[in-house]
Design goal:
The complex is a heterodimer of chains A (179) and B (459). Chain A has 179 residues and is of the alpha/beta class. Chain A has helices at 14-23, 89-114, 117-127, 129-136, 149-158, 168-178; strands spanning 2-7, 30-35, 50-52, 140-143, 163-166. The radius of gyration of chain A is 20 Å and the shape is elongated. Chain B is α/β, with parallel strands linked by helices and 459 residues long. In chain B, 42% of the residues lie in helices and 14% in strands. The longest helix of chain B is centred in the last third of the chain and has 18 residues, at 437-454. Chain B is globular. Classes of the chains: A alpha/beta (179), B alpha/beta (459). The interface between A and B is medium-sized, with 15 and 10 residues.
Chain lengths: 179, 459
């Protein structure tokens, strides 16, 4: 049986994979992971495939942790910007509320255009060949947190034979019911 | 002549026609295999009525509800008196639905909007989010049962409060008396003492209507009963305290043992740990005691039960426990009622960790005192549970939730666990005897049997 864990909330520890095997009462099941953040520790032996789909993609290996590489991070050749001249305190005080409002507007626009993590997570899975392939072969798809629910719901529509649940306990119950 | 008598005199003869034994319709949303805290009271109440010669029909939610949402303890089903008829009604709980195929597109795309719409829809039939839609199937089932086998008395236990609607319906249509059993309170926040609903809210109006027509209203402790007596002064005489008490089977299953004094002590907690439970202060106090007291340093603290209300442990609570693992604190998972004797047997000292509130009494305190073991109270001293424990010879309350005070209580209890002799423990168990479930239920069952007789039921 292939199990796919969808994770957006926190960097994935290997214990989550062990939990999956324990809940589903099957030590031999193949666990694949599609995660927004790189796992906190090496998952080489614990999982079949680990697809990191967020902006920071470095995956720790059992040989050591490679530094995370951000898709949006500037390259090493980017020239360093000149430091802006210091402003007087009253100018900073005046700018602060506007800065806050600007940030808030920016966040709202960003949320409307690209969506929150939940929508971005699903968009990236849809566009990523490896993630889609992992989902296609899964018998059980588990959204491990609220950010992964949207992706789980869309995958449920695309793969009608798979069990798709929120949480491992529910997945274990559904699998047991299906025999 | 009161309303009951008038209606009964002119209507069909109630349950007497069948066997001469009165017929109780007991409504409990949470009934075995549900594993929630209130299920033990529900089970004990139904069983006790059956044992006292009543024919009992229970209306509850279907098994699937508990297996899917609340967690189930199937061992509890074996404890239902075989003479009890259990009618299970479908209950859907969309908010907790874990199967993502059953989620609508609106819920995925606008979860906030969906939740608001759902909450409003739930409250159309009855002002209770999540449970409101159960009113119609519940009332229909009560009517059906009464038609097939006339009911003499309806007893409903809440929460959910929608359970009260079955009794109210049979009372209005057929004059059947009903009893409301509050395991908690509806309008009162038992933790803060604040009102939860405004006086003119739908919930308040419903409660007023229900209490005005109720034959009796039960509460789990005197502070909650007194609060309601003040609120509904005209109906104060029909309000009674029926404390949770402990099951007599428990004292049969639990066999206290003598422990060698050199053996490390085990402190134990059994129950549901919610966010109201001061787990973090306990862990801090335990750590302090661990540093100060050699007996606590070698001891362990085992937490049995659920972390949060649902089958999956709440990550924040689990983290708290795991972070204290170096001091011997561990989470042992839920304990089935059938294993409870063995779990208690592994303890030397009991931990009573409760949320604050002058109105909070824990059901487990009765089981705790039945063991005769030392009890450490980690809760606000004003908690209603303190009233129950006054006079228990092996009670060690923390003076406050400060780590130092909790550590002191833990140390005193550890010393008592080693030094207390059989005489003190027997004295403790004698103290507990008045708090058995039959001791609490029988006076009310007797009074209700007499009332049903008086209202025209031939026995």
């Amino acid at each position: 049986m292939n199990v796919l864990l969808l994770v957006t909330g926190r960097a994935l520890p290997v214990s989550v994979v062990d939990d999956a095997r324990r809940e589903l009462a099957d030590d031999s099941l193949v666990v694949d992971v599609v995660t927004w953040l790189p796992p906190v520790e090496a998952l080489d032996e614990a999982v079949g495939t680990c697809v990191v789909i967020g902006p920071v993609r470095a995956v720790p290996t059992s040989g050591g942790t490679s530094p995370p590489v951000s898709r949006t991070a500037p390259g090493p050749s980017t020239p360093t910007a000149q430091a802006a001249p210091a402003r007087s305190p009253w100018v900073r005080t005046l700018r602060r509320p506007f800065g806050r409002a600007r940030r808030r507007i920016g966040r709202t626009v960003r949320r409307l255009v690209v969506g929150g993590v939940s929508r971005q997570f699903w968009t990236r899975i849809r566009r990523d060949g490896e993630a889609s392939a992992v989902a296609a072969r899964a018998d059980v798809i588990v959204a491990m947190d609220t950010g992964a629910i949207r992706a789980g719901w869309h995958l449920a529509r695309r793969h009608p034979a798979a069990v798709v649940t929120l949480g491992l306990a529910a997945a274990a119950r559904e699998v047991e019911q299906r025999g | 002549m009161n309303q009951h008598t008038e209606r009964l005199a002119g209507g069909a003869t109630p349950g007497a026609g069948h066997t001469g034994r009165p017929h109780l319709l007991y409504v409990a949303w949470g009934f075995p295999p549900c594993r929630s805290g209130g299920v033990y009271r529900a089970l004990a109440t139904a069983n006790r009525f059956a044992a006292r010669g009543w024919r009992v029909t229970v209306i509850t939610a279907q098994r699937e509800t508990f297996i899917r949402y609340t967690g189930a303890d199937t061992s509890l089903e074996q404890r239902i008196d075989p003479s009890i008829r259990v009618v299970r009604l479908p209950f859907s709980w969309p908010v907790l639905e874990p199967d993502l195929r059953r989620w609508s597109r609106l819920r995925i795309q606008r979860p906030g909007l969906w939740a608001k719409a759902r909450a409003r829809r739930d409250q159309v039939p009855f002002p209770e989010i999540g449970y409101g839609p159960w009113r119609r199937p519940l009332e229909a089932a009560a009517e059906r049962i009464h038609r097939d086998d006339p009911v003499d008395l309806v007893l409903s236990t809440a929460n959910p409060h929608v359970a009260f609607t079955a009794g109210y319906r049979l009372h209005r249509r057929h004059g059947v008396p009903y009893v409301m059993d509050y395991r908690d309170a509806w309008l009162l926040d038992v933790f803060s003492g604040e009102r939860l609903h405004r006086p003119n809210s739908r919930a308040a109006r419903w409660e007023r209507r229900l209490i005005e027509s109720a034959h009796e209203v039960w509460f789990v402790n005197d502070p909650i009963r007194d609060w309601h007596r003040r609120l509904y002064a005209r109906h104060a005489d029909r309000m009674h305290t029926v404390a949770n008490g402990f099951d007599p089977e428990f004292t049969d299953a639990y066999l206290p043992r003598e422990r060698p004094s050199a053996e490390p002590l085990t402190f134990g907690y059994i129950g549901t740990v919610t966010t109201k439970v001061p787990l973090a202060p306990f862990v801090a106090g335990w750590r302090t005691a661990h540093e100060r007291d050699p007996r606590v340093r070698t001891a362990t603290a085992a937490i049995h039960g659920y972390l949060g209300f649902y089958a999956t442990p709440r990550p924040d609570l689990l983290k708290l426990v795991e972070e204290a693992a170096d001091t011997g604190v561990s989470y042992e998972g839920p304990a089935g009622k059938s294993d409870i004797g063995a779990v208690y047997d592994s303890f030397d000292v009991l931990l009573l960790i409760l949320g604050a509130g002058a109105y909070v009494t824990s059901g487990k305190v009765f089981e705790y005192i039945a063991t005769g073991l030392p009890i450490v109270s980690v809760h606000d001293p004003g908690n209603a549970t303190s009233q129950v424990l006054q006079g228990y010879p092996l009670w060690f309350p923390a003076a406050s939730l400060e780590p130092g005070d909790i550590a002191d209580a833990l140390s005193r209890a550890a010393a008592a666990a080693v030094s207390a002799g059989g005489e003190v423990r027997d004295q403790a168990r004698r103290f507990a005897a008045t708090y058995s479930r039959p001791g609490q239920l029988d006076p009310r069952i007797d009074a209700l049997a007499a009332a049903v007789d008086r209202l025209g039921v031939a026995s």
